Each structure stands twice: as structure tokens, then as C-alpha cells.
Amino acid sequence: xxxxxxxxxxxxxxxxxxxxxxxxxxxxxxxxxxxxxxxxxxxxxxxxxxxxxxxxxxxxxxxxxxxxxxxxxxxxxxxxxxxxxxxxxxxxxxxxxxxxxxxxxxxxxxxxxxxxxxxxxxxxxxxxxxxxxxxxxxxxxxxxxxxxxxxxxxxxxxxxxxxxxxxxxxxxxxxxxxxxxxxxxxxxxxxxxxxxxxxxxxxxxxxxxxxxxxxxxxxxxxxxxxxxxxxxxxxxxxxxxxxxxxxxxxxxxxxxxxxxxxxxxxxxxxxxxx
Length: 274
Fold this sequence. Notes:
Blueprint: E1 8-12, H1 17-28, E2 32-37, H2 40-52, E3 57-61, H3 67-81, E4 86-89, H4 104-122, H5 126-132, E5 135-140, H6 153-173, E6 178-184, E7 187-188, H7 192-200, E8 215-216, H8 218-230, E9 235-237, H9 240-251, H10 253-270
Parallel strand pairs: 1-2, 1-4, 2-3, 4-5, 5-6, 6-9, 7-8
Helix pairs in contact: 1-2, 1-8, 4-6, 9-10
């Protein structure tokens, strides 16, 4: 078990959702928290809340698709809070479109934010971790990293990239004292859907699954991240049933394709997608 008290963590995508909930949970666990997102006003509110409860936190406004901004974020975190113990690459967004309806610019943008944005914030933090022989890298992947779901191809692909890079890095960095974990949430009750709707256009399907067994509060994911920080492990799942379902889908690709095909046909018939 790792004592998290006074250990700094840098979190991207922290203005709302999983990132914000994780920042609060880490602060409650005694960690010093540096948060980054594009919306400075929401970051300032979060930092004020953490400081109001006796914690230490700083805010940095920037976009993860800017490597220089990410480097400055890590520099600011270490200057104000001390050597980085952990980085949680959490920033990302999704959309609801067929592959043919997605422009090349849209696809590239999602990879720049979801995948390259993770590496942009991890890379400047790693040299210090390796020099000290300790640290923890976390990437917020998804349960969909294991499966190519219709109308979410780009999102699934970016999350699979995080998953595969995270697994490889785990074994590359473990001998040098740095833990690497991938986080695989299911649907969360956050503004993620609002962002996806903005990138996809308003569709009935984007309003589905706001409640139910496959949707969790962001705090559930945040608590799982804190447990992983205390006792590192390779993959963090917040739903055993979904994890088992993904295992069955990987073991039985024909069955998975039947189910995905049936789902896609129904959505086309309802006119949810074009």
C-alpha cells in the first residue's frame, strides 16, 4: 500500500466529469492536485473547493493537443507542488457517427486529443519519475477499448491505442519503478454526452442510457482510481459484468459480431444514424 499523503498528481480533463471527481477524491486522500483543462473558470472553482477543504491544488488552462502546453503544465505542477508522483491522462471526447460520415479532420482531431493528448502529458512527467525510480502513469481508456462498436469507431480506436500503449509501457517501465495503469470505465453520468452530441449533431441515440446498469456516477471511477494509486494494478475496471462481457466478446468474435450487427441494424431502422 502506498501512502498518498502530500504526493502530487497531475490530472487532465479535470474541469468536469471523471477528471473533476478524481481530483476531488485525490485531494481528500491527501494528495496535492494539479488540474488542467480548457475551461479555466471551472478549474478555478475546483481549486477553490479543494483549498477550502484544506487541500493543495493549482489550475492550468490549456489543451492536451498542445505538447508545449502540457510540458508547461507539468513544470507548473512540479514548481508549485513538488516532484510529480502520478499523472492521470484523462482528457478526451467521443462522437456518434458512421465512419463514412466522419471527415478526416474529425477523425484526426479525436486521435490528437484522446491518444496523442495522453502522451503529451505523460512524456514530460516521465524523465523525473524514472530518475527518482518511482511514479505512476494512468490513462483513462474505456470498456470499449476491447471492442469496435458501430458509430463509435474513432472513439474505440483511440481508447484501444491507450490500452495497448499502456500495457506495453507497463512492462517497459515496471523494472524502473514506474507503475502504468489503464482505466476502463463504463458510461458515466457526466457532460461527456453533451460534448459527444456537439460533435455528432443531435440524435435520439445520444440521449439513451443516461440511467441504468451500464451507467455510473463519475465518483465511482474516481474512487477506483484512488484505490489503484494506493495499490497499483494494471487495469482498473468499475463493472465486473461489463468486464466479463468484453472477455466473452473477445473469446467469441462471431457472437460479438452478431450482437453488434443486430444493434446497428436497429439503429439504422429507427433513423438514429445516417
